Amino acid sequence: MLPSRIFFDDFMDDLDIPRDKKFDKLMKCDIYEKDNNFVIEMDVPGFKKEDIKMELSNGYLNISAEHHIDDKDEDKKKHYIRRERKVDERCERSFYVGDVDEKSVEAEFKNGTLLITVPKEEKEKNNKKLISIK
Questions:
Q1: What secondary structure letter does DSSP report for 7?
Q2: What's 49's DSSP letter?
Q3: How many Cβ atoms sit within 10 Å of the Cβ of residue 88?
Q4: How would you class 113 by CB atoms within 10 Å of its CB: exposed for 0-12, middle for 13-18, buried for 19 or more?
């Protein structure tokens, strides 16, 4: 018989992973090709559009999301026993997209999902070159 802790504990807690790199903090995504573009659909639940930052640097598309608790808006009479839904959080992901123009990358945020469209790099169709023999 298996110990009950296997079913109730998060097995990732036992791994030696820094707190900000735990699997529960990663933004889950699907990547696919469509209409000569790469499309990234990323779940970013609990964040607002203003919380998300995207950068293109050295061929890498870096996406980060961050928000903080604003104690000024909190009800001072509340005493939380456990708080998981709204905490200081930061998560990020990076993808190698190659040498693309940042103006050609499009992004849309709707209902907690970030949809990013990155055009594929144009490669030379005929890269064969004849070499003359002397």
A1: H
A2: G
A3: 8
A4: middle
Q: What pLDDT is recorded for position 16?
A: 45
Other CB atoms within a 10 A radius of the CB of residue 22 amount to: 14
Instruction: Name which of 81, 125, 117, 78 is nearest 101 in CA terms.
Output: 117
Q: pTM for the complete prediction?
A: 0.65
- Residue among 29, 35, 51 at smallest CA distance from 113: 29
| Residue-level length of the chain | 134
CA-closest candidate to residue 43, choices 26, 67, 60: 26
Rounded to whole angstroms, the Cα distance separating 115 from 107 reads: 6
Only one residue has tokens 């950068």, namely 55
Query: Given this model, what pLDDT does residue 64 score?
Result: 92
| Token pair 């998560």 in the structure block, residue | 91
